[in-house]
Hints:
Elements lengths: L3 H24 L6 E2 L10 E6 L2 E8 L2 E4 L6 E2 L1 H11 L3 E7 L16 E6 L5 E9 L7 E5 L6 H5 L1 E4 L11 H4 E2 L10 H4 L3
Antiparallel strand pairs: 1-6, 2-3, 2-7, 3-4, 5-11, 6-10, 7-8, 8-9, 9-10
Amino acid sequence: MNNPLKNVVIIAVILVGLYFLTNYNQNANLTKQDVIFSGNKSDIIKVLIQSGESAIQLEKQDSIWSIAGIDTLVIRQNRIDDLFDKVLEVKRTTIRSKKESNWINYSVDDSTGTHLILLDESDNTIGYFVFGRSKSDWAHNFVRLRNKNENKDVLKNVYETSESVIHHLNTSETYWGEKPKEPELISTEVDSLGV
């Protein structure tokens, strides 16, 4: 005495269960798009960028940014704006790897990655990220978080970024600074009239 309605209900329950299980497995490698830096940007007083043997430190006093140890260059404000508005606002999206052994494949290990460290006025690290270039996709980068307050599993993950921002993490002094402009001679209307 098989009841056809009972069989249909059982099959429907199995299909719904399989749907949710499949959907869960597909989303296991996705994260909601979170910006990499969720702290308060006004707390950032120092920025350290290191790539290989090359490094640069940017410091803020009052509201003026400068390059540590370099007093012959003034900061290019558009570079600071790009750092705060583009790099710190980039989103981490798909998890590309959950294994530390794969960090080198995504150029986010300690030796091949580009390190971005954000410090507050007490020299506490409030953000630490390691960026890597994609060898095949120029529109995205990879990022690994190194923040102490993150879950240990998250610290092993390599994420794809929502857009490419690694070119904003240059360690060249002349990328961040320029020679001060010479004050222009101001000519008055009297001089232009030949008086």
